[in-house]
Every structure is written in structure tokens, then in C-alpha cells.
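Check this.
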Amino acid sequence: ELMTSAGESLLAWTDKTEKDPLLPRAMQATSLKMGAGSASRRSEIVPVSKVLAVALPVLLIALGLIVFRFSEGWSLLTSLYVLVQIITTVGYGDFTVKKTATRVFMGFYVIILLL
């Protein structure tokens, strides 16, 4: 019971200090035991999930742009225009994919992007 009350008081103290919302409370208490300097350094670390949430869509869109640019010979702006149509399933029909290899790629590409 002594550990419980000490743990509760430590967690109550962590509520009054700056804390990382993605870090579980138990880990925040551990980081405070290690010292104030390590707690501030820990909050500077960007979680992998945040990096992936930004990097993965950017990389997938860049991949689609590169494929359109080099396989169909369109400009980057036209490639982006068609890519947005395909991803959002609007499909105006003013630009169409002509090459079979690009069509096969786009079939898998759209499935991956919609997941």
C-alpha cells in the first residue's frame, strides 16, 4: 500500500508538469524519476506512428506521380490532376491511361491507397 500511495502521489505530481500526451502515464512517471532533463528530451522524440502517418501518403502519391510522368509522359501537374481523379474515384475521362502496364499498376495502386 505504501507503493500505491507513492505511485499515486508521483502520478498526481506528473499531472502538474508538462507531459507528452502519447506517452503512457506509467512511462511519464518513470521518465520523471530519471530527471527533468530526460523528460524534456523524451518529448522531443517524434513517435514512429506520426512519421509514418505523414511519410507514407506522401511517398505513395510521389510514386503515382513518377509512374504517370515517365510511363504516360504527362507533366507533373497533369499527373497530379489524374492521380487525384483516380484516388477520389471521380474520373472525368478527359485524361485516360493508355498503356497496359500503367493500367495494371494503377489497379493495384488504387487498392493500396484505399486501404
